[in-house]
Amino acid sequence: MSTQKTFTLAVVGGDGIGPEVTAEALKVLDAVSAVHGVTFTRTEYDLGAKRWHATGETLPDAELEEIRKHDAILLGAVGDPSVPSGVLERGLLLKLRFALDHYVNLRPSKIYPSVGSPLAAPGEVDFVVVREGTEGPYVGNGGALRVGTPAEIATEVSVNTAYGVERVVRDAFARAQARPRKKLTLVHKNNVLVHAGHLWKRTVDAVAAEFPEITVDYLHVDAATIFLVTDPARFDVIVTDNLFGDILTDLAAAISGGIGLAASGNINPDRTAPSMFEPVHGSAPDIAGQQKADPTAAILSAALLLDHLGLTEAAAAIEAAVTADIEERTGAPRATAEIGDAIAKRAAG
Amino acid sequence: MSTQKTFTLAVVGGDGIGPEVTAEALKVLDAVSAVHGVTFTRTEYDLGAKRWHATGETLPDAELEEIRKHDAILLGAVGDPSVPSGVLERGLLLKLRFALDHYVNLRPSKIYPSVGSPLAAPGEVDFVVVREGTEGPYVGNGGALRVGTPAEIATEVSVNTAYGVERVVRDAFARAQARPRKKLTLVHKNNVLVHAGHLWKRTVDAVAAEFPEITVDYLHVDAATIFLVTDPARFDVIVTDNLFGDILTDLAAAISGGIGLAASGNINPDRTAPSMFEPVHGSAPDIAGQQKADPTAAILSAALLLDHLGLTEAAAAIEAAVTADIEERTGAPRATAEIGDAIAKRAAG
Ligand SMILES: CC(C)[C@H](C(=O)O)[C@@H](O)C(=O)O
Ligand SMILES: CC(C)[C@H](C(=O)O)[C@@H](O)C(=O)O
Q1: Which of A56, B130, B133, B326 is the most exposed place for a label (fewest CB within 10 A)?
Q2: How buried is residue B271: exposed, middle or buried, by Cβ count under 10 Å (0-12/13-18/19+)?
Q3: Which domain range does residue B103 map to?
Q4: Partners of residue A119 in chain B, C-beta under 8 Å
């Protein structure tokens, strides 16, 4: 338990439905904070498509340094069709993840019986993906030559280091150790991406020796997508690289009741910089501003935030409120704010 | 229609269940060939784990050049746990795909009502993935430094060229044009892999101008996995890079009745070298030699082979026989050879 009573929070609503779902997450955060005797002092940062159109800026370094001073970051969603693809993703979202050394991208998946799944017989699903967050094909280490000509060549370099792989693998083992099933699955593609894949495999094998209670297995990423559909209950903790983690967690969200429920934490386990919490879903510009978005993923991300700050009871209160709310869902659509209100009331109750 | 009557076929059974399922594919191929007045002269190549253990060879260049002289190649599966991961995949399977310029890796997906799907409500699913086969992260253009030390760094380079992207995109558009729904979806990750992603996107946009009847859309690879689970009926032709195609086609197989039915063609559309046909599934060493494997994917791969050689009636006869066989499946297990016998009999009947 933390003894700290006041926390500073940087808030980036972002684009599309980002601000709407973030507002509900903050509503719930405030409601539980009041009950648990803590306060969040918020600073909002106006970052995203509007800012870029107005000023050409994505995330100026001075603002990044301000954000860095906070205890945690809550983010909505980033990206808009009016901005060239990649500008906001690389210049804002990934800049935050990389600069703040969010090397553990934590993404839990769970099937709530009342929500169901597109799968006919999903079984009991409750696993977490530990996605590496600061290396792999996401490093931006590529380029292009002779762009727009028939002789164009474009490369993307996946960079993997023993330093980067070992720290995330250790984190994943520690999480598996704390879970009842104590199982860890490495997902990679080491029969093709042999250099990176063998580094991952050797690292997992080495760290496994220190965790004799953990059952370890390995799946190629293509086979992992099959099991996520045919036998998702087989998974407990999955550890994988940045790109495979991106793909697997959207698939995991799809089989477990939808992207509207998928929360994530971009975590710096060494606490040398604030961690950042955001729903897995994107900015969904087609439904933005219409109170149609489900804020549950953003609200569950706020629970991960509380947990990271050591406010475990407050986190559990949000999770219980969400579970209760989900169990009563009838399928009749509610406005974004109505869902937030209902969960806030329960969480504070 | 082809007027050629005799074809040469290079056969690589490979590892695990590879030889078993290949035997059934050949049985069916022979049965329809007899009826349709064509002959396949076969040469078997002893390649795979056993050969590697005995001689250290994966695919000697001289043997590759012999294989190159054939009209087509039928391959079972490659890979065994007794061989370091990547040795056979890179040294045999990918060597064939790259050396023979198999730039179109064609992978159809279809839900047979009688087989069903792990999805509760899949809808009518009938799409084809055109996976690029000679570029992307599969080029083997990576390396590692200081291996086994805490300072290790491993890279994997995805190489994409206008030449390579345009030719596969053109092929995908031509296939979409020949299909009733005339829809093409590009799958990439152009918000993160901006150099490669933008090359793909610009190429699709440019070629689209020549195909005004085709509806074109774009999905990030993570979003594509969601739609494959929540709305697979939305897809007609998917065009994507080598790695994304690997992942999406295993997922596509999973949602459409399993990897036991997924066929593929590694096609050289310019016919400068023989094309190669193989089931999408792996060597499944755990069930090898037990007559437990479903040879249907290998048999359907033989149908793709016939189609590629212009023997469209013979190809259709196999497809019809497989469909009829699948419709009568009761779930009671049949031996690999029994399934092959049943389909061969129907296909020749
Ligand atoms: C928006 C995009 C850059 C991001 C990613 O690829 O990581 C998103 O898909 C996610 O999973 O958080
Ligand atoms: C065996 C492996 C190298 C191969 C690939 O990754 O292409 C397989 O997964 C496939 O899809 O044909």
Answers
A1: A56
A2: exposed
A3: 1-114+260-349
A4: 118-120, 229
